[in-house]
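Person: Please comment on this record:
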Amino acid sequence: MTPVNTIALLQDLRKQIVAAQYKAESRFGEKPSAMLQHRPQPGKWSALQCLEHLNTYGRFYLPALDKAITEAERKGSQPTPVFRSSWVGAWFTKQMQPQPDGQLRSRMKSPKGHLPAVQPDEETVINEFIQQQQMMEALMQRAEKINLQQAKVTTSLSRFIRLSVGDTFGFMTAHINRHVLQAERAISTCQQQVRKPV
């Protein structure tokens, strides 16, 4: 994969995480409960379900990232000027990341352990989501001082599949972007229905 500047990569990912946190605080947090719980179609998730889905991943990957970074720090890992994504990490990230026009490259079925509740509690979900973005940003700051390529994280798919810390950040950020966009669209469809003349 094409090498990228390590610091520039982390700064870009942090900006995306901060943007997701801002949306949760200023957009989702201010919406009425009915709008956050609105499901655009049968089988489609509400905005809150999208965020709860992301929270389930954060509960797995944030501690795993913290563990990998802590271990790298303990071993005296040093940062490198460039980061090169593995083909697996690049593929996961590309599949998750929305395209510039907002379209998704693929439809994916969520694993059983990451399915959201039918009607999640809005305050609990939004607060956890915001806290997770704060944790992610803090981990990215710590990761500036280690080798992003050497430190590895076990994935939720299998303990035999491991991604570098850099690829895990990329995948997680793309996944967050994907479902925050889905949450915004769920709210938008609710607003459109409200505006329809009776």
